[in-house]
Design brief:
By secondary structure, the chain is mainly alpha-helical. The chain is built from 14 helices and no strands.
Length: about 350
């Protein structure tokens, strides 16, 4: 493994030296791969365009991130920015110098990459959904169109995935093999949900049971391994010790923070999709109008941007987790229930005036 890591360090040094002029683009692509964008950007867009795809997107993101957490706890993957400081394979005088950036110092284990896994799973869902639409069309011309669309979309998929992977390696937060593993794992999770139609009709009880199972299994694994003196939070002290700037350390990147955030989103989706507001807003005659859907998308995206201004206090860890869960649950509640219902109420009196 040290040999794999040392070769990875050489690749990182090469990228940081020869691709310095692309730093802004690579930092941007790292943000593109941020799993949080699934809830704040991709989900609001897709849910109003196709509720089946939007629902699948949340399930894939949540289950994929849960697998990512379990893999990280099992694989004990180091991150480059602290590994080079602690490995014994370099003499003291020749320790490689890896530049760090404000988004470098993530605190969880490094393998597989959560950004690469989240990006690949959600883009796999989106590409598959777009292609399924062209498959339904009949005729010779549509077959040629499908082939062109297939080539274009999968080319875009791989361009985005490669860009995200390179960006994560460039900022020294992942080794190359970690991002490759993340992409493969994300695609496997997304493909599995292509054959799970039951999530579309899941009741609130099913959502709650899934939440409880995911939380209990992760917490159970953590406690069992802790009983045999295996600390699954071993990476946090390393991150704090070797991060170039203490202000770059963020509690939001700890393993349990991601778990709580995802469970909140799944619970919020279950609560909203089984609510009366969702039925009135999205399932009525308004829900099939393009103007209604576009209004919901624009309002949802604007509202979710305001959520970024809500800063959760980090001085108490347990309070942070509770508030993070509530904030994440509010996202699907806003997109699926509150916004469509409010627009439904606004459009209702307008229709009466024209009668």
């Amino acid at each position: 493994m040290d040999l794999l890591h040392s070769h990875g360090v050489l690749i990182i040094q090469h990228l940081q030296k020869d691709y310095r002029s692309y730093q802004s683009f690579l930092n941007f692509m790292s943000h593109v791969g941020d799993p949080r964008n699934i809830f704040s950007i991709y989900f609001p867009l897709w849910f109003q365009l196709n509720q089946v795809v939007g629902t699948k997107m949340i399930w894939v993101a949540v289950i994929g991130d849960w697998f990512n957490l379990i893999f990280k706890w099992i694989l004990f993957g180091h991150r480059p920015y602290w590994w080079v400081q602690e490995t014994m394979i370099y003499p003291n005088q020749t320790t490689p110098c890896l530049e760090q950036f404000p988004i470098t110092c993530e605190t969880g284990p490094g393998s597989p990459s959560g950004h690469a896994m989240g990006s690949s799973c959600v883009w796999y869902v989106m590409v598959s959904a777009a292609l399924s639409y062209t498959v339904r069309q009949k005729g010779k011309s549509t077959i040629n169109l499908h082939r062109l669309t297939w080539s274009f979309l999968w080319s875009m998929f791989w361009i985005i995935q490669i860009s995200v992977c390179v960006s994560r390696v460039f900022i020294a937060t992942h080794f190359p093999h970690q991002v490759i593993l993340g992409v493969i794992a994300g695609m496997l999770v997304a493909e599995a949900f292509e054959h799970a139609p039951a999530i579309q009709t899941a009741s609130l009880k099913t959502y709650i049971q899934t939440n409880v199972f995911l939380f209990a299994s992760a917490l159970g694994l953590y406690l069992v391994l802790k009983l045999i003196d295996i600390d699954l939070l071993w990476s946090i002290p390393k991150a704090k010790k070797w991060c170039a700037n203490p202000e770059w350390i963020n509690i939001d990147t700890t393993p349990f923070a991601g778990l709580v955030r995802n469970l909140g989103a799944l619970f919020g989706l279950g609560l909203s999709i089984n609510s009366e507001m969702f039925i009135l807003g999205c399932k009525g005659k308004h829900g099939y109008k393009l103007s209604f859907r576009m209004s919901c998308i624009a309002t949802s995206l604007a509202t979710l941007q305001l959520y970024d201004f809500i800063k959760i206090p980090t001085h108490t860890e347990y309070l942070f987790y509770i508030l993070s869960f509530c904030k994440s649950a509010a996202i699907p509640l806003t997109v699926v229930a509150f916004v469509p219902y409010c627009i439904y109420l606004l459009m209702k009196p307008t229709e009466k005036k024209f009668r």
